[in-house]
Structure formats: C-alpha cells, structure tokens
Amino acid sequence: MAKVMKRILVVDDEENARIALSKILTRQGYDVASAGNGYEALNYLRGKEVELIITDINMPEMNGMAFLRELNRSYPASNVIMITAYGEVESYIEAMNLGAFEYINKPVKLEELNKIINKIFKHTANSHPKEIRHETV
C-alpha cells in the first residue's frame, strides 16, 4: 500500500523564505503548496484538504492573525504553526488563543520545526479525522 503524503500549506509574503521552506518540506516527503498571503491561502483551501498550515504573521493585505481568525470561521479543524520575525508576547498570546498549535520565531530552526510537525501529525493520527467545513458565499 502506498504511503499517503501529508499536505502542508506554507503562507509567507517573503518569496525566498516561502520557496526555501517549501523545498525543505518537499525533500522531507511532504506534499507542499504555498501562498503569498492569507487571501491566496484561503482560495487554495477551497476544496482542498491540508493537514498543516505554516503561516507568517506579518504579511500585507491579510496578516497572519486575520488569516487565523478566518481559518477558525471557515476551517476550524486546521492545524496551524505561526512564524514571525517579531516575537512579541501579545501576538503569541493572541495566536494561541485563536487556536494556533505553535508559535515560533524566525529564523526557523529546522530541528525545532520538525519536532513540532511530528508532534502535530502524531496528535492528529491519534484522534479521529475531522472534516473540513466549507462555507458558501
């Protein structure tokens, strides 16, 4: 039986960071998609199943917190890792209260990120799969 690849969505307005993280995760065996902002990510999520979303906080158009709020409304079962170059206690608390699984600072340490990803996938493997809800506009 073929192993099903976990799909990760990387959301970051910094193209180089987005591409680099996507390539690393792809080499580790994940099916990776990427988006340059929260609006692009929400458009991608329509009709797609994603096991994990890794998103930057500081982005133009729709920042990471607004994106996380919208995920809570439209896709409440989403697993989210927030990343930021500006680690502030207030944004950490807000992200965690909005349901982020973890909040990490840039530059992202791959060992730390891999531990978090493994923890998320272990957690989701031990729970019942949740259906992604889609709202019609």
SSE blueprint and pairings:
Layout: E1 7-11, H1 15-27, E2 31-35, H2 38-45, E3 52-56, H3 64-74, E4 80-84, H4 89-97, E5 102-105, H5 110-125
Parallel strand pairs: 1-2, 1-3, 3-4, 4-5
Report on the structure:
The chain is α/β, with parallel strands linked by helices. The protein has one domain: Response regulator (Rossmann fold), CATH 3.40.50. The protein has helices at 15-27, 38-45, 64-74, 89-97, 110-125; strands spanning 7-11, 31-35, 52-56, 80-84, 102-105. It has a five-stranded parallel sheet, with helices on both faces. Helix 3 (64-74) links the parallel strand 3 and strand 4. The model is unreliable at 128-137 (pLDDT under 50).
Please sum up the structure shown.
With 137 residues, the chain is of the alpha/beta class.
What attributes characterize this protein structure?
single chain; about 140 residues; alpha/beta; Rossmann fold; 5 helices; about 40% helix; globular
Largest sheet: 5 strands, parallel
Number of helices: 5
Shape: globular
Numbering strands along the chain, what is their spatial order in the largest sheet?
A: 2-1-3-4-5
Q: Beta-strand level of the residues, as a percent range? A: 15-25%
Determine the N-to-C terminus distance: 39 Å
Q: What's the number of extended β-strand segments?
A: 5
Q: Which percent bin holds the helix content?
A: 40-55%
